[in-house]
């Protein structure tokens, strides 16, 4: 089986073709084509992601990226006679004229590829950006009649922990996992703890009341004059400071909600505390930046580890999954792994760095589980949902 994944929820335009082969009970998974085009450089100038700019970039890039991905997957076969694109397609794509132009120039030239389903991110994310991916998927469906599976982006991050990075190049089994599982999803838009009884059976048991953790990283980075996205920048400085093994803490930041009875988070106060700290200083030197970065990362990590420990103690789970862009952070990774080591019967799965940030492979994989579970698929009557929840 081959599933085409499409991801356009934020500032990455991504397309992947996931091939599932071999023994049906224990299949192999391979990304026979996988492309991600990041718009980070374009948005970095503005210090954040601009929805309409993201939409325009997706419109421009989707068809070239599809072409590249199909090519890598060896699925391009020139059409013997130019096929027609459906009559109503121009009207359908009237809000994405650039996408229509690229679409009508490329798609009729190739034969319908051997793809069984199209999985596309429905939400959550930036609605204008989501719409482009969805309309593209629908246009492909109208032309090739391949069924579409709308996918929740957060389910994509959740299942990404099951993939080995080797799947990007060769056929691999998934990591073994047992339910019930707890998933910690930490990204630029989300911070949530999810209890999973099965794929698609999710309950959010904790979430942020204000800023997402990646958002806090990005905002604090901005205050320190560091470029977008802030996560990698702050973690680099924090690591440099950590290497010094300095036991002094020149700045002390709060650990918001660390002892609250629930599993919720709050990072807005932490961000404001950084702002006040900076305001009191006559000058921010490189040394001070490193010290603040480390204290901020320590605060965030302590809260995450404490809340995950509490969540594990309250729920008899067999697996812990972590997903989302922020788990690229080595210190957070290591701290969570160390905490979970103490639980002998719990397995922790964290995706390799290559698949932590937004990609379409995880969307295709979530689509695969939807097919396996016979969830409602096909049909064109679904919309982008910026606030879609698990
Ligand atoms: O999952 P993702 O690619 O996009 C969303 O769905 O939001 O996550 C992006 C977020 C950004 O806020 C970025 O600053 C953060 O992940 N991030 C990191 C690191 N790398 C990326 N945060 C902390 N440490 C990192 N190393
Ligand atoms: Zn994401």
In short:
The protein has twelve helices and ten strands. It is an alpha/beta fold and 390 residues long.
Please provide a written account of the structure.
By secondary structure, this protein is an alpha/beta fold. The protein is 41% helix and 17% strand. The chain contains 12 helices and 10 strands. Strands 3-2-1-4-5 form a 5-stranded mixed beta sheet, with helices on both faces. Strand 7 and strand 8 (201-207) form a beta hairpin. Helix 2 (51-72) runs parallel beside helix 4 (97-106) and helix 7 (213-223) packs parallel to helix 9. The protein is globular and about 75 Å long. 48% of the residues are buried. The mean pLDDT is 95. Residues 10, 187-189, 214, 217-218, 229-232, 235, 324-326, 328-329, 357-358 line the site of 5'-O-[(R)-(carboxyoxy)(hydroxy)phosphoryl]adenosine.
Core attributes:
390 residues, alpha/beta, five-stranded mixed beta sheet, 12 helices, 10 strands, binds 5'-O-[(R)-(carboxyoxy)(hydroxy)phosphoryl]adenosine, binds zinc ion
Helical percent range?
Answer: 40-55%
The total count of helices amounts to: 12
- CA(first)-CA(last) distance: 26 Å
The main pleated sheet reads as:
5 strands, mixed
Q: Over all CA atoms, what is the radius of gyration?
A: 22 Å
Give the structural class: alpha/beta
- What fraction of residues sit in β-strands? 15-25%
Shape assignment: globular
Instruction: Output mean pLDDT.
Output: 95
